[in-house]
Design a protein that fits this description.
Order of helices and strands: EEEEEEHEEEHH
Number of strands: 9
CATH superfamily of the largest domain: Nucleoside Triphosphate Pyrophosphohydrolase
Low-confidence stretches: none
Strand content: 35-45%
CATH class of the largest domain: Alpha Beta
Number of domains: 2
CATH topology of the largest domain: Nucleoside Triphosphate Pyrophosphohydrolase
Structural class: alpha+beta
Shape: elongated
Amino acid sequence: MTHDHQTIRFCPYCGETVVLKQIYNEEHAACPNCRWVHYEDPKVAAGVLVLDAGRILLTRRIFNPHKGDWTLPAGFMNAYENPQDTARRECLEETGLEVEIDKLLDIISGREHPRGADMVVVYLAHVTGGTLIAGDDASEAAFFALTNLPPLAFQATQQIVESLRNNRFDDFLSK
């Protein structure tokens, strides 16, 4: 598998110009001076599925990709952050709602676009406080009936909605 290594041009430790080096059947940016090797870490996002009276909580994106489309409240994990903390934080930042995590629903893998996540951890959650108001990178936040959804952004959101529609989460929702 090859990757675009144009963004790593200099060693972050000694400043030497890096070269591409074949390591375990993959090319990596490597420093010929101090022998540092760049291994690209996966990008992880976490989010929540919040239901209220059969309606799903979604946020409308203000940035590309998928500007203007709707998605689950979700975002990238910070280093050393627990994915549940990420999901709660992102929901609060994007919707003004505080949530409690109930269960892990799914882990969806596959980077959809160059700046996207390699995996999205999605939790079932319920509202414990706050006031519904869009914030951070959302222009709107609202609950929608599954039968009347706006255009959805991201495969992860689409996959969760499809699973919900096909009753794949019934065991999770009934407990």
